[in-house]
Amino acid sequence: METSDNPQIKLLLQPWASVCFSEPTRLMAKAWFSDSSYILLLSDLSNMWYESANTEVIQQRSKELNKRLTAPVTSILNCLRNFLSPLLEGKENNSVSFSCQFSSSTLILHVKSELLGLPFYWDFHCGAAPLEMMSRHLLKPLMAMSLGLHDQVQELVSLLLQKDAEIEDYRESGATLSLERLKTEPFKEASFLHTFETKTLPQACCLGDGRLFTSNLKLLYLAVTQQQARAACKRHRAESEDSGSLNHAASQDPTEKPVDLPVAEEKTETQLPSAQHLEEAMQNQNPAILTHFFIQQPRQ
Questions:
Q1: Which segments show compositional bias classed as Polar residues (predicted)?
Q2: Which of 53, 118, 147, 188 qualifies as a FRET site for 178, CA 20 to 30 Å off?
Q3: Integer Cα distance of 156 and 31 in angstroms
Q4: Exposed/middle/buried for residue 85 (C-beta within 10 Å: 0-12, 13-18, 19+)
């Protein structure tokens, strides 16, 4: 498999977007398309659904839903990508209509538009996402983001206290402000934390439909998932080297009886990619500087 087509890497590095397929339902979504397959991941913050479809599934579904239309899989995938991309970018697409039906275990997203001048229909059949996928795309990134933001706050508090000490030294030396409006009160950490806990935190806990998370923290999420992929790359490289060393040592010892090693399972889409694939994929991404994105944008 080409690295550029590895769904596990590509989907992980996609940001979450807040989309409204049909009023009043708003979901968090991310998607990845290649020339032969796609993965769609959706969540309402209580459940998570996903679908992974390959060429065979896409061909069969297209025949069932569009009996008058014959189109190659690449054209169908390009069409689906064009339908969803505007929504994932926060734009409207008036040429497409969506409707959604879901329960805790299944979600069906109906799409209606045109392709090659003929009516085009598509249904995304999503099932409940496994816990590992929920952890990889939400839990682990959110924990890393929280720890990173906490560390940044501590650094900013330390910097403010140093600045106050510097200003006080200037005052004791006889320096005065040329503009009175620039005067500030000394920073009080206890007061700052109290205001945060009583005013800022309650607002932040009103998660709603996830719209503020997908808009204000998109760049930070991308930076964290890139770090996540790099860590996986190092881990898989180390495991590969350990396995290679073990096999080499066994082959060099003539006194040892031959041992039948288990045949490696065929790689599936849900398995993590190899270290080389992860490393090459990261080289195709624009590396983000974590601390640059740790400052949250103000709420609108």
A1: 243-253
A2: 188
A3: 36
A4: middle
Return the structure tokens found at 178. Answer: 């040329």
Cα separation of 103 and 106, whole Å? 5
Distance CA 66, CA 282 (A): 38
* DSSP codes of every residue in 36-101: S-EEEEEE-SS-EEEEEE-HHHHHHHHHHH-TT----HHHHHHHHHHHHHHHHTT---TT-EEEEE
Contact 282, 236 (CB under 8 A): no
Q: Tell me, what DSSP letter sits at residue 254?
A: T
Per-residue pLDDT tens digits for 8-29: 888 999 999 999 887 788 899 9
Sheet of strand 118-128: strand arrangement: 17-22, 25-33, 38-43, 48-53, 118-128, 106-115, 97-102
CB atoms under 10 Å from CB of 16, counted, come to 24
* Alpha-carbon gap, residue 25 to 152, rounded angstroms: 35
Closest among 69, 91, 83, 67 to 33, alpha carbons compared:
83
How far is it, in rounded angstroms, from Cα 121 to Cα 62? 8
pLDDT, one tens digit per residue, over 92-138 is: 888 899 999 999 999 999 999 988 788 999 999 999 999 999 999 99
Partners of residue 102 on adjacent β-strands: 107
Tokens read off for 203: 């607002």
Per the CB < 8 A criterion, the answer to whether 210 and 42 are in contact is no
Pair 292, 212: CB distance under 8 Å: no
> How far is Cα 1 from Cα 6, in angstroms, rounded to an integer?
7
Structure tokens at 177: 């402000």
